[in-house]
Design goal:
With 372 residues, the chain is of the alpha+beta class. 53% of the residues lie in helices and 13% in strands. The protein has a seven-stranded mixed β-sheet, sandwiched between helices. Strand 1 and strand 2 form a beta hairpin. The longest helix has 67 residues. The radius of gyration is 34 Å and the shape is rod-shaped.
Length: 372
């Protein structure tokens, strides 16, 4: 077991992609010097990469493997149907899996064919932002499709996230692990993707805590001030996108850890259980995020309704106060000759005083009852 004792240590540091030294941006696309979709193609024998004087084509690499042993690892980025056709024919890939790999936008899954496994991973990246708005992108997704065979491993990557170059280099630094063949690479990628989920979940927790604090923090007069419902809804949509990446992957990882498979090394298989455990924890977090955001959104809408009701009560209270002088002025504005106190010297100030006292009494009563 010593050869895979440090398995987790090899792939754990890969939760964040390595920035380029020249631009500071992440290496997420194919090498500009590579004219095709093949980002890297290498033969691995006895846990080490077999050096070649010139870049190998997939066909040349496979011929070496069939002649001398080992396995070939081919990495592709967004290949077209024509670019992938030759590789699919050379390795005998199933047409349905090939179609999914080229078209992308697939649900995370595990499919078993006669001599290969086809696995789909959704990669997730947290998008840094200074302020969460109603249109902020919080979670960016990509896809990694993996074909696992007895003597080959093919990755097809879509989107600007999920570069595997740093992971490949780390695996090449651990010959004992690479000796286990393609199944070790499959586990490393699964663990790499899961670590990305954990990092995104932790970052989303901070955003949700911030929104929750704003919703329930006291505003004027000690009442909760609330926040923009659009921000909460946008964050909920991003959490839903994250959930679509995590939830469907749990069952495939459980199958890889529980059912013996001819293409999965028995010593590697038990480590898929660790990946499944981490996925289950992230899934619970994401489900909790969704439920919490539902509660926050409902609370925010309830606060908005309460605020509207308070405004309506204040408007109604002032309308009731103003109704008194309006009624009095309306009565004395009628052109009747015989009206009470019209000829009395103190009639005018008396009416004004009585009107003011009535208005003051109504004001104090409404204020005491919390309407003002």
């Amino acid at each position: 077991m010593s050869m895979i004792r440090d398995l987790r240590a090899v792939v754990r540091p890969s939760s964040r992609p390595t920035p380029r030294k020249d631009t500071g941006e992440y290496d997420t696309t194919r090498d500009p010097a590579t004219p095709s979709a093949v980002v890297d193609c290498a033969v691995y024998r006895d846990g080490a990469r077999v050096e070649s004087a010139k870049p190998l084509t997939p066909q040349e690499a496979m011929r070496q493997v069939r002649r001398d042993g080992g396995f070939v690892w081919i990495g592709l980025h967004e290949p077209t149907e024509a670019e992938f056709a030759g590789i699919a024919t050379e390795f005998g890939l199933h047409p349905l899996a090939v179609e999914d790999a080229v078209q992308a936008h697939q649900r995370p899954k595990l499919e078993r064919y006669d001599d290969s496994l086809f696995t789909v991973f959704k990669t997730v990246h947290y998008v840094e932002h200074d302020e969460l708005t109603a249109s902020s992108e919080v979670v960016a997704t990509g896809e990694v499709m993996c074909f696992t065979g007895q003597d080959f491993f093919i990755t097809v990557r879509h989107g600007g996230q999920g570069s595997l170059r740093a992971l490949r280099h780390r695996l090449q630094d651990d010959p004992e692990l690479l000796e286990r063949g393609p199944s070790a690479v499959l586990h490393a990628i699964a663990d790499h993707v899961t670590d990305g989920y954990i990092a995104v979940a932790d970052a989303l927790q901070d955003d949700i805590d911030e929104v929750e604090t704003e919703v329930f923090s006291p505003g004027r007069k000690g009442t909760p001030r609330g926040t923009d419902a659009g921000r909460i809804y946008q964050l909920k949509r991003e959490v839903l996108e994250f959930k679509r990446a995590v939830a469907p992957l749990l069952r495939p990882m459980q199958l890889l850890s529980e059912r013996p498979m001819r293409l999965i090394d028995p010593d590697i298989q038990k480590y898929f259980r660790d990946v499944a455990d981490h996925l289950a924890r992230v899934q619970e977090q994401v489900t909790g995020f969704d439920e919490l955001l539902n509660s926050i959104l409902q609370a925010n809408l309830a606060q908005a309704s309460v605020a509207q009701n308070e405004d309506m009560r204040k408007i109604t209270s002032w309308a009731a106060i103003i109704a008194v002088p309006t009624m009095v002025c309306g009565v004395y504005g009628m052109n009747f000759e015989h009206m009470p106190e019209l000829g009395w010297r103190y009639g005018y100030p008396l009416v004004l005083g009585v009107t003011a006292m009535i208005c003051l009494g109504i004001h104090r009563t409404l204020k005491r009852n919390g309407w003002l």
